[in-house]
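Allow me, if you will, to draw on your knowledge of protein folds for a short while. I have a record of one protein: its chain in single-letter code and its fold written as discrete structure tokens. I remain grateful for any guidance, and I place the record below:
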Amino acid sequence: MKKIVVLTGAGMSVESGLSTFRDADGLWENYPVARVATHEGWVADPEYVNSFYNMLRKKLVEAKPNEGHRLVAGLEKDFDVTVVTQNVDNLHEMAGSTHVVHLHGELMKVCSSRDVDNPQYQRTLTPPDLEVAPGEKAGDGSLLRPFIVFFGEGVPNIMTAAEEVSKADILIIIGTSLVVYPAAGLVQYAPQGIPIYLIDPNPVAAATSRGIHQIQKGASEGMKELTEILGKLKN
């Protein structure tokens, strides 16, 4: 069974009603990145940071996977599939994908602010309990914080993702501009000569290198087209 690695970015979830961060009407236009997505912002005003992610969680629980998510999950019928996502939503899992590597954390989880990656102090929030209250503590006595990789912090799963890409027979990239590192560097781990498909409605400069075949459509329409192509490659 051939191995597919699917690398997804914010454009994957746009059709599900979740704003991208970088577009003209994206979240960064309304919330300064330095205040809500950096370690310095957290230290300066943890209550403001938690209130921002409390708001995002309420939006997320109202969202549903789109056809693109479902088609990615459906690839598991014929391929060994790993999804590597820059997104902090859980829409891939909701659609049925069973092997998802989150590079930038998970919005529905909270953790210790002293020992972020210690699973002992991580907790998954579920409705109606979606908010971190001011001053709420983790099990180690530190303030609870979002389980999100802030700008400037290390990306714990990047080497796991690189290893997955290095074993791929086919690489699919959906909804990412390939300008945010270290995730953008993952393409360089793909074995030489494997098919690489990029689905994005906008021209992507990186598509000119490594013989990347771009399908210039949104996630759902692009995955419909690609699913037909992959049907010929599954054996």
